[in-house]
Amino acid sequence: MSRIICPYCCKHFEPDEVHFRYKEATQKEVPVQHEEEEITFRRRGGSRSDIATRNDGRVLDKLLLKYYKEFGSPADSGNFENYSMQLPYIEFDRLNPKITYDFAAFEEYGFINKIRVDGQMLDERLCPYCHNRVVEGAGKQDMHMISVIGNTSAGKSVYLAILSKIIGEDRTLNASIFFKGNEEEEEYYFKNYKSLIKDNRRLNATNGMVPPIPFEINFTDPLTNQKRSVMIVFRDIMGESVQNLRDLGLSGKHIKESSGLLYLLDPTGFNEVIAKVTRRSYDGGSQAESLTALKRYLTGDAYEEQTMIPTAIVIAKSDIISSMSFFDDGRYTSLVEDENWRSRYAGYIEPEKIKASDEGVKDFLRDIDEEQYVVNAEDTFKNHKFFMSSSLGYDPDASVNNWTDITPFNVTEPFYWLLSELGVLPCRMTRRYTNKKQGTKEISVLAYKSETKEQLDARFNEELKNQGMISMLPWNKWLPEGDK
After folding, report:
1. Cβ neighbours for 331, distance < 8 A, ≥ 6 positions apart
2. Which residue among 4, 180, 208, 476 has the highest number of C-beta atoms inside a 10 angstrom radius?
3. Burial class, 143, CB count within 10 angstroms (exposed 0-12 / middle 13-18 / buried 19+)
4. Four-residue CA torsion sign, 296, 301, 305, 306
């Protein structure tokens, strides 16, 4: 059993704390205040149909109403009471004699997906705090919410569409990916996906409230060689909302509750890139302002000066800057050009490669007099790394919408690094051992970042044993120098 994250109100709760929505009215639940009026109702489940309301048993759901008043709605008309008219609900309670459920399944999995009560089989699970529908399958596996942040021109929607496509093609992980959202979210995501991948059309800038985008990712864990799954909910935010503190507070409440952040930077927001590579107008520093707003939002009222949320900072559209002389240096070429980038990691993260990428991107920013991003990131994020990526492989503005040959670059590396920081993917850990007689030797193991020191020590001791490096003689012992 794994804790559930509600992607709407961002509360965390146990799978057996859910509420269930009735499918039909009960005799005692008949509203009178709306008996003579018709209510056009749009459910969170995605239905857009007009619902007959005379004596249909709908009542005002106060938790849903409270959510709409605080967060708004994708179908925001301001008439939240009408949207909050729902069939009654019941809280799941194992001791309630009215409720029957699969006790054996609950004992084995700790997961309730349906109950029988009042002659009805109920399977619509609700968040106990806001009464939005729980993500399908939530509670069966680990669940993480990752916020994607960036200015309007950063290409967040394009990045997410390409990322989901490439994850499903990752043979090193033997991965598969399944969309798990409701109908409304499905329409939003697949409209973007179909436009970009199938119809070769560029995406428009995101406007309005962006719905959650939940996926179930299945993969073969290289440490155990067993199939494993994880639930990832991506939360996007309209680009204009990241440029000031007020809009972040209104539209980005999910950011503080995220498990990880993907922060996309548009290189055309760098003055020297504009001058040397493109003909676009300089953004006047609004991108730098968004990082300042984010720091204030995440740490302004916090005790800590840095947020603890792991953050991947990605210079997107690296194809635009690949021709700059900085990358003629062989040390940095792989930052923007590597035909084998998809197989760079064999299902696990290598910290040394991540460190090299991080340092290379920082060197680039310093080289073009944009060190403010390096300094601001260090002052904002306790745990962060810089990356370069390109979702398309070329600049669509310079290609006259030639979308027939999308060649992404390095799209998965920032995301996989976040998964390793969250204990989903393992890392290749290396220690150097010394022996008075035999010198030094490096030993590597796969381990999760979430493991304790004792668990990590046990993995290394097992590998030492496998390599015949265990000795009971004090003068012949291998002693560790430290982790890498």
Report:
1. 360
2. 4
3. buried
4. negative
CA angle 156, 158, 160 (to 5 degrees): 70
CA pair distance 180, 143, nearest whole angstrom: 12
DSSP string over 406-463: ---BS-HHHHHHHHHHTTSS-EEEEEEEEETTTEEEEEEEEE-TTS-HHHHHHHHHHH
Are 127 and 375 in contact by the 8 Å Cβ rule? The answer is no
Write out the two tokens for 40.
């056009």
What are 352-377's pLDDT values in tens digits?
A: 999 999 999 999 999 999 999 999 99
β-bridge pairing 479-483 and 12-13: unpaired
End-to-end CA distance of the chain: 33
- In angstroms, the CA 371 to CA 321 distance is 17
CA dist., res. 6 & res. 314, Å (int): 26
Q: Is the dihedral of CA 285, 286, 287, 292 positive or negative?
A: positive
Instruction: Give the pLDDT confidence of 281-311 residue by residue, as tens digits.
Output: 666 667 888 888 888 899 887 778 899 999 9
Determine the Cα–Cα distance for residues 434 and 476; give it in Å rounded to an integer.
10
Q: What percent of the chain shows pLDDT beyond 70?
A: 84
The pLDDT of residue 47 is above 60: no
Looking at beta carbons, which pairs linking 76-79 to residues 24 or more positions away fall under 8 Å?
76/209
3-state secondary structure of 70: helix
Res 157: pLDDT: 85
Confidence (pLDDT) at 239: 65
Q: What is the pLDDT of residue 112?
A: 86
Q: What is the pLDDT of residue 381?
A: 95
Angle between helices 371-380 and 286-299 (to 10 degrees): 10
226's CB contacts (< 8 A; 6+ apart) are 220
Whether residue 262 has pLDDT greater than 60: yes
In 3-state terms, what secondary structure has residue 149? strand
Position with higher pLDDT, 175 vs 38: 175
Q: What are phi and psi of 341, to 5 degrees?
A: -65, -30
Asked whether 142 and 135 are in contact (CB, 8 A), the reply is: no
For 105-144, the DSSP string reads HHHHH-----EEETTEEE--EE-TTT-PBPPTTTTSS-EE
Report d(CA 117, CA 106) in Å as an integer: 17
**Can you give the pLDDT at residue 303?**
77
What is the pTM (predicted TM-score) of this model? 0.87
> What residue has token string 């003689």?
473
Chain centroid, CA 201 distance in Å: 25
Instruction: Specify the pLDDT at position 19.
Output: 97
